[in-house]
Amino acid sequence: MLYRALRPLLFAFDPETAHRFSLSSLDVLARIGAASLVACAAPRMPVRVMGLEFPNPVGLAAGLDKNGEHIDGLAALGFGFLEIGAVTPRAQPGNARPRLFRLREAEALINRLGFNNDGVEALTENIRRSRYRGILGINVGKNFDTPNERATDDYLACLRKVYPHATFVTANVSSPNTTDLRALQGPDNFDHLIAALATERDALAKRYGNRVPLAVKIAPDMNDAGIEMIADRVAARGIDAVIATNTTVSRDGVEHLPASRERGGLSGAPLKALATAVVAKLRRALPASVAIIGVGGIASAADAREKLDAGANLVQLYTALVYRGPGLVGEIVRGLASEGRAR
């Protein structure tokens, strides 16, 4: 209710300014123990995925907190897990502004942020300062000026740095906002990358005495052959999960909106059906031992159930929080718990 009253004020600012203000305000509320003003506690709804016990199946998608600066504030909203990043080895500013656009009528966003972040060292320092002890995923990528032939070096560098701090690590090969990044989803590039990550993970597991699950985040715009290739390679290389999906370059259903002409990835309600279809195709192609995290257009418990029924083990939110507010997390978990639909 409070967020509904505040939203017109937030939407009077450009999206990035509103984003920073919202997260800073959430940090303050969490610090003084007043997060209940904007969000109700989510009930426990345990689910075991990737060998981990999640308190509920609803997580935060990567991209909202790229540097891990707002972990404690976001944890107060009732998420079963958080994913921060994407982070790159070196700090980089991302693409020029404006680079984030609201499509209000469609409850959607277009972003071309371009992996803007303060670098992996800053992210790990922020994690050290946080009080959160729940499940923390860390999404990693390559710097914009690292050629694809050396992309694996960037992913491995990030994996080594975040490994002691992560509950799981996600290789982001699907953002449309870093030139040629999606080429890493091609058969040879993809297999080379995930094989190297799996090998390095096994070495790090021996060093730290702790096996951290690996996930890959894929695009919604792949054809069936591409999805089947991803599933085959993931299963063969011992990757633990696929996150489906990132944003889309399609503008189906929003072509009439002026902001749809902006470059970048589209998220929110228009992505829902496309992302759910990818989840279903992956579930048919993957062994049950490989988890699927469904993300894209989830704005209600019914939307979350749709992803779970399609084959996802967990779900994640981002864009709907902008339009529905922080109370959405508990609302979705309560809705799922009332029907016992998570698995």
The residue-averaged pLDDT reads 96
Order of helices and strands: HHEEEHEEEHEHEHEHEEHEHEHH
Low-confidence stretches: none
Which strands sit side by side, in order, in the main sheet?
3-4-7-8-9-10-12-13
Short description:
The protein has 343 residues and is α/β, with parallel strands linked by helices. It contains eleven helices and 13 strands.
What can you see in these coordinates?
- This protein is an alpha/beta fold and 343 residues long.
- It has a single domain (2-339), classed as TIM Barrel (Alpha-Beta Barrel), CATH 3.20.20.70.
- It has 11 helices and 13 strands.
- The strands form 3 sheets. It has an 8-stranded parallel barrel, surrounded by 5 helices. A 3-stranded antiparallel sheet has the order 5-6-11. It has a two-stranded antiparallel ribbon with strand order 1-2.
- The longest helix has 22 residues, at 187-208.
- The protein is globular, with a radius of gyration of 18 Å.
- The two termini are 30 Å apart.
List the helices and strands and how they pair.
Layout: H1 2-10, H2 15-31, E1 47-49, E2 52-54, E3 58-60, H3 71-75, E4 81-87, E5 100-103, E6 108-111, H4 120-129, E7 136-140, H5 151-162, E8 168-172, H6 187-208, E9 214-218, H7 224-237, E10 241-244, E11 265-268, H8 272-285, E12 291-295, H9 301-310, E13 314-317, H10 319-324, H11 328-339
List keywords for this structure.
alpha/beta; 8-stranded parallel barrel; globular; TIM Barrel; 343 residues
